Amino acid sequence: MTRMQNPIAVDDAVLSAVRFGENGLVPAVVQEAEHGTVLTVAYMNAESLRRTLESGRTWFFSRSRQELWPKGETSGAVQYVREVRVDCDGDAIVVVVDQHGDGACHTGSWSCFARVIGTGPGVARATPAPRRVISRPAGTDEQRLTEED
User: Fold this and answer.
1) Looking at the predicted structure, is the pLDDT value of residue 143 above 50?
2) Which residues 6+ apart lie within 8 Å of 104 measured at CB?
3) What is the largest CA-CA distance in the chain?
4) For the domain 1-108, what is the CATH code?
5) What angle do CA 107, 111, 114 make, to 5 degrees?
6) Which residue of 45, 50, 90, 132 pairs with 61 in a disulfide if CB–CB is 3.0 to 4.6 A?
7) SS3 label, residue 53
8) Domain boundary assignment for the chain
């Protein structure tokens, strides 16, 4: 996994493509670039989206704390942005990232969507199983990963 922190050009025209809800927020689906795994769903306001684009790292708006927060600030689980997409209606975005650290979920799982609650008959798993860190050399972002059972 490459460490990336490339700012994306942003102006008011770019932000106007996004329709923020009455609460000033838009849902942001965060997807891992390498395997396409959905890592989490969080919320952004205009300022957190702007900071995400300008810094090349994900910023979100905490609905419970009513404040902006950069992903990984305390956990070290930083997300470096590869691409930001807006849906056809402009009311949801997808942020494609390189995930670093122990994963996206506060529980320690690689993905917040690690629990499968059901699959249809004959349906193969569409994406690789969520991964967990089994070792990390001291002082580096390098990880040795394994698939969970």
Assistant:
1) no
2) 30, 39, 40, 71, 77, 79, 110, 111, 112
3) 47
4) 3.10.20.810
5) 85
6) 45
7) helix
8) 1-108
- The phi and psi torsions of 13 (rounded to 5 degrees) equal -65, -40
Looking at residue 149, its pLDDT comes to: 37
59 in helix, strand or coil? Answer: strand
Tokens of residue 147, six digits: 């698939």
Return the pLDDT at 136: 46
Strand partners, 43: 27
24-60: burial string, b at 16+ Cβ within 10 Å, e else: ebbebbbbbbeeebebbebbbbbebbbbbbebbbbbb
User: How distant is the alpha carbon of residue 48 from its chain centre?
Assistant: 13
